[in-house]
Amino acid sequence: MTSRTGAIGTLVNGAGLAMNIIDAVTALSGECANFLNTGGKATTATVKAAFQLVLADPKVKVVFVNIFGGLMLCDMIAEGIMLA
């Protein structure tokens, strides 16, 4: 996980997607607290752990989840988030 100074945590599956999200949030005057790239082979358990890690950052007030469905099943991501 990469730490930054804002209040928006991000959970994505792809470094390029993460960089685009940071750019988009910044363009709209927001600031990311961190970003975590789950990679393309994440499981429900690894998504749960990743979401918990993002939320463990005391700066995070909201989490922006952006998952490219072509790499993994989005229902699996949702289940991992719900378990967190």
Task: Explain this structure.
The chain is an alpha/beta fold and 84 residues long. Helix content is 43%, strand content 21%. It is built from three helices and four strands. It has helices at residues 15-27, 44-56, 74-83; strands at residues 2-3, 8-12, 32-37, 62-66. A four-stranded mixed sheet has the order 1-3-2-4, sandwiched between helices. Helix 2 (44-56) packs across helix 3 (74-83). The longest helix is centred in the N-terminal third of the chain and has 13 residues, at 15-27. The two termini are 17 Å apart. The mean pLDDT is 88.
Topology:
Layout: E1 2-3, E2 8-12, H1 15-27, E3 32-37, H2 44-56, E4 62-66, H3 74-83
Parallel strand pairs: 2-3, 2-4
Antiparallel strand pairs: 1-3
Quickly list its features.
84 residues; alpha/beta; 3 helices
* Strand percentage: 15-25%
Number of strands: 4
How many strands, which pairing sense, and closed or not: the largest β-sheet? 4 strands, mixed
Task: Please bin the fraction of helical residues.
Answer: 40-55%
Across the major sheet, the strand order is 1-3-2-4
User: Quick one: overall form?
Assistant: globular
